[in-house]
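[job 4417] fold queue: 2 targets
>>> target A
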Amino acid sequence: MRHVSTGDLRRKYSGVVADDVENAAEQRSRAQLADEIRRDIDAGRYPVGDRLPGYRELGRRMGAAPNTVGEAVRQLAAEGRVRIKANAGAFVCEVDDEPLTAEQQIREARADLLDLRDKLRSVRRELDALDDKVGDLIDRLPSS
């Protein structure tokens, strides 16, 4: 199947509102990608508990933009087929798994944000230490 770019669609349907054509193409693409990933999960290519490849890798394999792949994966998450964990990726769920309740999603989001904040603070400490080293090196340089 040949990939049709938004530019191709705009040229072909110049009398149609371009945004409508672009949105329709993106919708089909997102739905097609979700269907393809769903089929791969059902076929066992991505077993329960496994992490899906990253959006860039999936996009490369499927001939799609990473953002569109991300939208397809989020659609699968809304269906309960995968769980998306911040900074970890999307993981395949049991088909029988119930989608997370709003309360569970908030709890997971809070835990992910707290973890992210801790990582950010650690990086900030490392940056401060590097800044101090650079300052020391500058101070050691002879004046011009």
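>>> target B
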Amino acid sequence: MKKILCSMGLLAVIATAQAADIKPTDTIVTVDKVNITVAQFQKALDDNIKAGAKNDAATQSAVLNDLISQQLLLSLAKKENLATRPDVATQLENAQTQILMRAVLNDYITKNPVTDEEVKKAYDQLAQQYKDVKQYSVRHVLLKTEKEANQLIKDLKRKRTNFDKAAKKSLDTANQNNGGNIGWHVPTDFAPNVAKVVTAAKKGELIATPVETPSGYHVIQVDNIRPFPMPSYEQLQGEIRTTLTRDKLNAYIDSLRKEANIKVNEALGK
């Protein structure tokens, strides 16, 4: 494939904005009388760098050639009038709809951003919610029948086997090689009936009867119990801000629904 390149030195100068006489509107390359500007190149380069690419000669060259290829394909699409083809027109309409929707939501959240105070308040509420919550280190063996599960409990109590051996036959293949250990969990991570027996158990206790779930019968032992280690504000603030932003946007959409005159044609379902 033929690559059209300006000098690597010029690309580097443009990419690092070192030359005062180079303007964003300047043409970096012309493709069949269509100009690709410095601004277009810089924007595409910035997008690649944000995605993890290095700002080096190879990336700069690849970006420029991608812009050239894009323009060649766009020109061909226009020449063949593909935008009027029904399937393409539908895709273009859908893409435009998505772009405009994102623009509206971005504009709203720019004018109504989630504040640091809102993030801190949400963190404090979360910390209060988890203040008295405990975490449980649990291991289990999942079996098909209640009979098998009861027999395993007897064997564990009588020291005829242990979880390391028993887990090899567990239907939960993800934990077969670590003694059935599923790590630390808060009660809400479990099915309600599992949470009930786990939270009632003592440290090191083997649950006396199997616990049934849609997956089968669980033989459960609570290895350890500790207070929930609440992550710091610094660790959670990004996630909290994202959640609050989503909630604020959903509330905004709900308000638009309430203000709009929406009528469903019930006759279509008859």
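[job 4417] complete. Note on B: The two ends are 59 Å apart (CA to CA).
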